[in-house]
TrEMBL record:
The chain crosses the membrane at residues 20-43. InterPro entries: Cyt_c_oxidase-like_su3, Cyt_c_oxidase_su3-like_sf. Keywords: Membrane, Transmembrane, Transmembrane helix. GO terms for molecular function: cytochrome-c oxidase activity. Residues 1-50 form the Heme-copper oxidase subunit III family profile domain. This is Heme-copper oxidase subunit III family profile domain-containing protein. It comes from the Bacteria. It is found in: Cell membrane; Membrane. It is a multi-pass membrane protein. It comes from Neobacillus piezotolerans. SUPFAM superfamilies: Cytochrome c oxidase subunit III-like.
Length: 50
């Protein structure tokens, strides 16, 4: 186990955690983008009604 750590390899549990973290980060950024898109869309509609 110690040699794997010095060689830079990760265990399966750590790799799974890294992959899940990357996926959650990408999903969060997608939701953040759509939140701003929806905000500008709603503001545009509200300003057109006035």
């Amino acid at each position: 186990m110690r040699e794997r750590t010095f060689q830079g390899f990760h265990s399966r549990v750590v790799l799974k955690g890294l992959i899940v973290g990357i996926i959650l980060f990408i999903v969060r950024e997608i939701f953040f983008f759509f939140l701003f898109f929806e905000l500008f869309f709603i503001l545009d509609l509200v300003l057109q009604l006035n």
